[in-house]
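In response to reviewer comment 3 from the previous cycle, which asked for concrete evidence that the modeling workflow produces usable outputs, we include below a single protein chain processed end to end. The sequence was submitted unchanged, and the resulting structure tokens are shown without manual editing.
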Amino acid sequence: MLFTKNSIPELALLILRKRLRFRVTGVSMTPLLKPGEEILIDPRAYRHIPPKVGDIVVARHPYQNHLRLVKRVTLVLEDGRCFLKGDNRLESTDSRSFGLVDSQQIIGKVTSRFF
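The workflow returned the following structure tokens.
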């Protein structure tokens, strides 16, 4: 379930190391995700299937590999590249500025957040 209050199954998956925990920085995904909120991602979500339009993902920045981005998938091409956008379009650095992102740069799918 996406964006539920601390559900028991998601916490169990975190303990079993099947989820990764990230802290949101910046305002590119407001109002949905605010700076300081913590999210869980499924790093195995796209092992066998491509991302879908509407998925919220954590990805590596295509030119600054140390940066992690939280963005929404808005387009998936047949070759596996994705167009990523922030919900707060005026405050987001996303595919509009750095182009398409290869699906291999996606670290995982956001599954939940902590309130």
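The chain is about 10% helix and 35% strand. We consider this sufficient to address the reviewer's concern, and the full set will be provided in the supplementary archive.
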